[in-house]
Amino acid sequence: MQISSFHPPVRTLMGPGPSDVNPRILEAMSRPTIGHLDPVFVSMMDEMKALLQFAFQTQNALTMPVSGPGSAGMETCFVNLVEPGDTVIVCQNGVFGGRMKENVERCGATAVMVEDPWGRAVDPHKLEDALKAHPEARLVAFVHAETSTGAQSDAKTLAEIAHNHDALVIMDAVTSLGGTPVMIDDWQIDAVYSGTQKCLSCTPGLSPVSFGEQALNRIKHRKTKVQSWFMDLNLVMGYWGSGAKRAYHHTAPINALYGLHEALVILQEEGLEQAWARHARMHQALKAGFEAMGLRFVVPEAERLPQLNAISIPQGVDEAAVRAQLLQDYDLEIGAGLGAMSGKIWRVGLMGFGANPKNVRLCLGALEDVLSRMKAPIERGAALAAADRVLG
Ligand SMILES: *Cc1c(COP(=O)(O)O)cnc(C)c1O
Question: What are the GO MF terms of this UniProt record (predicted)?
Answer without folding.
Answer: transaminase activity
